[in-house]
Amino acid sequence: MNVKLIDQIILFSLLEASRQDDLFERELGPIHLVKYVYLADLAYSEQHNGDIYTGVPWRFHHYGPWAAAVFRRLDAVVEEVGAVKKTVSSPKIKDDSFRYSFSDDYYHDQLLSSLPFEITGALKKYIKEFGKDTAELLHYVYRTRPMLCAAPGEYLQFTPRPKSKTHSETDTGVEVNLSVKRKRMKEAAIEALKKKVAERRAEMQSDKREWKDFTPPRYDDVYFEGVEWVESLADDPIRPEEGTVEIPDDFWKSSLRTDDEVC
């Protein structure tokens, strides 16, 4: 694990957030920064055969990717560069939470040139897309491949996605070239379909009828009595219920959570 690299990604995330057009998106909380470091490692691993940039041991923790080592570096980075740390209190949150912000063009340009392009490109994209929208950010990271291929408590694996055969490959991986005759047949079928669609469209246009003027409904006693009668046919309203959902251990790595050949 390389602490210096972790600090650089945290700092670049803060600096990139400070450049967003929306003023409300220029502050990030601890949960956002941890997830952006994870996404940076994920983006790097996809271009480096599963190797991650920071060397952090990411785990499936509380339904999301988590690394205590990254979380512990947040305050250290903020103090080192003199970033703003703001306390945010809310009746919906048991404990106070924090928001960090930092803006410096020199630091931003320096990190932009020193960090790998795949990391800076990914962070620019994700911070612009999610910012400090916690719900959308968490929804996205929960659906990333390392998370889908792990169960709660396990360390995440960033190994590349297994290669799958496509319709253009045989069992030996040799590309299948369509014959000239088959290509011509395919092109002819497409042209015939286009012609049929055009003819159908012209037919619909010729048969188009003029609509009569719209007559608005009359909201009288008959109307409201009818609405009341229709509503009386419905079942009893759904009442809120409380309970505990138990998830079997084999669910986490079942096909219910992943698409074909994800892991």
Structure description:
The chain has 263 residues and is mostly helical. It has a domain at 3-148. Helix content is 47%, strand content 6%. It is built from 9 helices and 4 strands. The protein has a two-stranded antiparallel sheet. Helix 1 (3-17) packs across helix 4 (105-114) and helix 1 crosses helix 5. The chain is extended and about 70 Å long. The two termini are 25 Å apart.
How are the SSEs placed, and which strands pair?
Blueprint: H1 3-17, H2 30-47, E1 59-61, E2 64-66, H3 68-81, E3 84-88, E4 97-101, H4 105-114, H5 117-130, H6 134-142, H7 145-148, H8 180-206, H9 221-232
Antiparallel strand pairs: 1-2, 3-4
Helix pairs in contact: 1-2, 1-3, 1-4, 1-5, 2-5, 2-6
